[in-house]
Amino acid sequence: MFQHVFLKGSDPDALVEELVSALREVPESAGLGFLYFDGELVPHIDGILDQLRDQTPVDHWVGSVAGGLIGSGIESYGRPAISVLVTDIAADSFRLLPAVYDDVSPGLDDSRAWRNAHLSSFGVVHGDPRNPRIPALIAGLSAGMEGGFLVGGLSSSQGNDLVQIAGDRIENGLSGVLFSGSVPVVTGVTQGCTLFGHRHEVTGADAHILTRLDGRPALEVLNEEVGDILARDPRRMAGYIFAALHIPGSDTGDYLVRNLLGIDPDNGALAIGDHLAEGMQLQFARRDADTAREDLRRMLASVRSRIDGEPAGALYFSCLGRGENLFGPDSAELSIVREELGDLPLAGFYANGEISHNRLYGYTGVLTVFLERG
């Protein structure tokens, strides 16, 4: 049993009352819930958690504040809203991961006996984008789980109250929930971009400044590959042309999409939204609504083909730059997800960065489908 509740309105107290009412009748076996909420609800979150634990069967909660909320076929931005997914995953099949802030060792040590006993290699995590250690924490947690697979996203909000939940309210760290090997899942990532041109080697870089590709000025290479129209008017590249950093050792061609932050015509250099080093493999990519729709449907078809049995519920973490900004109004992105997967109980949020496996991505959608357990 997975149950989804999506509520929006102008009165936070009324929203919470409606949520509690909707969840009072869930079975006693419903012990874990995912809770995503708009920034206007942050001042109320401690009271919300108390009410949910006191007045519903669900004792354990994880989640995050979000600048945009995701439900089954619906999105919501900038107004009081809540998206909840309640599960009946058995209590011994999951374990909350309290926040880690600069070192994953305490969290790994605390969960080691349980992870070993339950063959745990999968987790859903949420992070605070203000913590510069988050990418390292994600990589360290995955490595400490012997190559564990993580999904999730970084909190997003119009304000500075970037709150996560892992049992209680948390800020500034990485937290979430780990699952036993008995919980079957299928995951997928959509990049929403199309690579073009050739793969190049970074042969000159200083921090986020890219000076040379394959021994040539980086701007010269970019202008050659984007064509005359965009080369003559670099402003048109903004939000359309990106840098794609290929992930070493990936057997699926995965890459990290990073912004082009600026152009230096005098020195033939580019500013890229990531730390660069010589030897990296870089390619340019384009992103538009049509490409994003095609890649989303490709990912969803791949997920469907790998589902063995019945899907029970899903989580979806998508970039704030996607949603209505890329796919258009009327919950277009989530409508595609529902078209391809059916009216599946689904919750999630629009994030400041998306987590898949052991890396922090951008401009992606990360889907996890939980399957019915036999």
Please write out the topology.
Layout: E1 2-8, H1 12-23, E2 32-38, H2 45-55, E3 60-66, E4 68-71, E5 74-77, E6 81-87, E7 94-100, H3 105-118, E8 122-127, H4 134-144, E9 149-154, E10 163-166, E11 168-171, E12 174-179, E13 185-190, E14 194-206, E15 209-213, E16 216-217, H5 218-226, H6 228-232, E17 241-246, E18 255-264, E19 269-272, E20 281-286, H7 289-306, E21 311-319, H8 323-326, H9 332-341, E22 346-351, E23 354-357, E24 359-361, E25 365-371
Parallel strand pairs: 2-3, 8-9, 21-22
Antiparallel strand pairs: 1-6, 2-6, 3-10, 4-5, 4-22, 7-12, 8-12, 9-23, 10-11, 13-25, 14-15, 14-20, 15-16, 15-19, 17-18, 17-20, 18-19, 21-25, 23-24
List keywords for this structure.
2 domains, Elongation Factor Tu (Ef-tu), domain 3, 9 helices, single chain, globular, 374 residues, six-stranded mixed β-sheet, alpha+beta
pLDDT under 50 segments (min length 5)? none
Helix share bin: 25-40%
Q: Radius of gyration, rounded?
A: 21 Å
Largest sheet: 6 strands, mixed
Mean pLDDT: 93
**Structural class assignment:** alpha+beta
What does this structure look like?
The protein has a 6-stranded mixed sheet, covered by helices on one side. It starts with a strand and ends with a strand. It is α+β, with helices and mostly antiparallel strands. It has 9 helices and 25 strands. The model has no long low-confidence stretch (mean pLDDT 93). It has 2 domains: 268 residues, no CATH class; 93 residues, Elongation Factor Tu (Ef-tu), domain 3 (Beta Barrel), CATH 2.40.30.
